[in-house]
Structures are given as C-alpha cells and as structure tokens.
C-alpha cells in the first residue's frame, strides 16, 4: 500500500515537472522580442518591427507606428571627412549639425551610450526621435528610434529598453 502511494506521488511529481517545462518553453517561444544582428552589433527589438531598407543605413526596421535604424561610421572615415571627433559627445554634436537637427537638443549620458531627443516635422507630420550614440572600437554607431510625436511617451520606455540591450561582438 505504501509502495503504491509512493509510485503515485513520484508519477505526479514527474508530471508536474513536465507540465512546468512545457509552460516555460511556450512562454519563451511566445516572446514578443527579436534580436537584430548586424556588423558586430546586436540589439533586441519588439517583433512588430520588420526589416526594411533605407539608403545610407547599416540596418533599418519599421513598424506600423515607427522605425528604428542603425548607422555604423568608421572612425577613419569620420576623420577623413574633416570632422574633428575625439569622443562620442563630439560625434553627437557633429551629427546634430550635419543633419540640421532643430532645437539644439541636450545630449545626455547612459552607462554605455549617449543620447538626445528631438522633434521634426516631415511632410506636415510631427515625429519625435531618440538618437543613441555608441563608441565601439573603430566605429561610432548611431541608433535612432522614431514615432509619431503623439505616441512618443507611450513608446519611450521601449525605445530605451532596446537601446540598453545593445551589445557588440568582441
């Protein structure tokens, strides 16, 4: 009798473990995130972003309400262009000037990158941008997130989550 009880308890324990494993694997499979890898950089984006193309970008993804793009600039190429850049701050200032970004955005720091926010009207529609600049080895990376200005507060935390996820190959 004790042996039968023990066998049932072991069977229940194994069944519970299997159910737990299946539940955890299904949660992982249903993740709403994707990893984008390009030229030694990896970033995690929401699955709503789909790969697209845009001239002069290293990678470019769009969603129904926004976009995110990455641009890799080799430091040698930046130097050859005549722009004097000694830091990510210098690069950000040059990037703001070169792209005629309005409003003199304030450049702020996070642990692994600097960033600035700005707005711009394109074809009569107001957009808000979060631009992040990473200094990695021989290149500066610019990662820009954008959406309709009215939606920016809703998307801002997700933009920063993706920006914080950036890692580079060693």
Structural write-up:
Strand 8 (125-136) and strand 9 (139-148) form a beta hairpin. The strands form two sheets. A seven-stranded antiparallel sheet has the order 3-4-5-9-8-7-6. The protein has a three-stranded antiparallel sheet with strand order 1-2-10. 34% of the residues lie in helices and 37% in strands. With 170 residues, it is α+β, with helices and mostly antiparallel strands. It has helices at residues 2-29, 75-80, 88-98, 152-164; strands spanning 33-38, 41-46, 50-52, 59-62, 66-74, 108-109, 114-122, 125-136, 139-148, 167-168. The radius of gyration is 23 Å and the shape is globular. The termini are far apart.
List its traits:
single chain; 170 residues; alpha+beta; seven-stranded antiparallel β-sheet; globular
Mean pLDDT: 85
| Ends distance | 61 Å
Give me the side-by-side strand order of the main sheet. 3-4-5-9-8-7-6
Order of helical and strand elements = HEEEEEHHEEEEHE
The helix-and-strand class reads: alpha+beta
For the sheet with most strands, the description reads: 7 strands, antiparallel
Low-confidence stretches: 13-29
Please tally the β strands and state the result.
Answer: 10
Strand percent estimate: 35-45%
Rg, Å, rounded: 23 Å
Helix coverage percent:
25-40%
Number of helices: 4
The best one-word shape is globular
